[in-house]
Structures are given as C-alpha cells and as structure tokens.
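[recover] target loaded
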C-alpha cells in the first residue's frame, strides 16, 4: 500500500495547472456538487468544516447554508484561488492543513469530505474518521463523496468509506447513493440515551 499523499504532491499539481481537475468547467463536477448539496437536506449549519476545498467552487455554494465555514486544503495555490473566489463571504475562513494531522477541533455541525479520503492510506483514513467522530456535534452530519473509478491513490473510494465507517462507529450511516463515477455517503451522529 502506498502512503498518504503529502502537501508537496498537491503543490506540484496546482503549479502545473490552476484547476487540475477542471472544477470550474466539468459537467461531472457540477452534477456531483448538486448531489452533495442535496444530501444536506436543506439544513442550515451553524459551524461547518470542508476538508479539501481546492479552489473553492463548492465552498462558495456550500457557504450559503452555513453561518460559519472553515475550509481546508493542503495546497497554498488552491487556497489563494478559493479565498479570491469567496472574498465577499465573511462567514468563510480558509486554512492550509493536511489531515489527519491538521484536523481542527470542533464541534462542527457538518463535516464534508469531497473526494479527499482516498488520498490517505488506510491508517490515516481511520485516524481521520476518529477525529471527525470526536468533532461532530449532536445531530451533526458527515458527508463523504468518493470517486469510484480507477485511481493511483493509496485506497479506493469504496475502501475509504468502509474504513471510515469501521473507525467511526458512533456515527450512523444513514444514506448513500452510487452514481456512475462516484458515491455519496451520509453519516449522522447517533443520539445517546441515558
């Protein structure tokens, strides 16, 4: 198994192209973003965390449903573009960080992992899931979006979800859908009854 990708890999990607995955022009990305936002069920979130915000295309749309949104990415060039794209949204903050080591403390009402978990090795996916579980507020949502096609990443999108679910047992896997090229999974913090 290969190790988790580090920030230098993403820095090189953004040095070679300002939009290496065509987030701004891809019909696939637009449809995936539409499905991701629909999975939120129309809820408003007090404090949200977006892991792997890239150049901020989804961030801008997500911000409309959040009182406060912290968006993380490992590539400074991506963050610079994201900050420019969201310059008029005061509720959005950006931070350069890689997970699991840079996972911020919660609580968060929403944690979104959009096509990032499979860049981690199995141990780091499990550590990230544990951190997400500990950081999710009561009735909070964790949304996982994962590419399901061929990849050279440490784990597959399907494996990332399996590892996440196994490590975050206090979160209930409430819904999922599979499209041709990705899967979308929704987890909710379980209520503890005394």
């Amino acid at each position: 198994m290969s190790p988790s990708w580090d920030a230098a890999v993403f820095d090189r990607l953004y040095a070679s192209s300002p939009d290496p995955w065509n987030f701004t022009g891809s019909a696939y990305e637009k449809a995936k973003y539409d499905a991701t936002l629909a999975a939120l069920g129309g809820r408003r979130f007090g404090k949200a965390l977006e892991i792997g915000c890239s150049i901020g295309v989804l961030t801008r749309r997500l911000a409309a449903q959040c009182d406060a949104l912290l968006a993380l990415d490992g590539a400074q060039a991506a963050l610079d573009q994201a900050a420019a794209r969201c310059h008029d949204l005061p509720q959005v903050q950006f931070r350069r960080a890689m997970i699991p080591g840079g996972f911020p403390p919660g609580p968060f009402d929403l944690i979104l992992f959009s096509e990032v978990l499979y860049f981690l090795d199995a141990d780091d996916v499990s550590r990230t899931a544990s951190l997400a579980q500990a950081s999710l507020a009561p009735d909070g949502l964790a949304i996982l979006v994962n590419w399901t096609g061929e990849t050279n990443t440490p784990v597959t999108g399907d494996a990332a979800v399996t590892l996440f679910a196994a490590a975050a047992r206090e979160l209930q896997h409430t819904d999922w859908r599979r499209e041709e090229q990705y899967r979308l999974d929704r987890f909710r913090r379980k209520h503890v009854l005394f």
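[recover] notes: Strands lie at 45-51, 66-73, 92-96, 108-114, 136-147, 171-178, 182-189.
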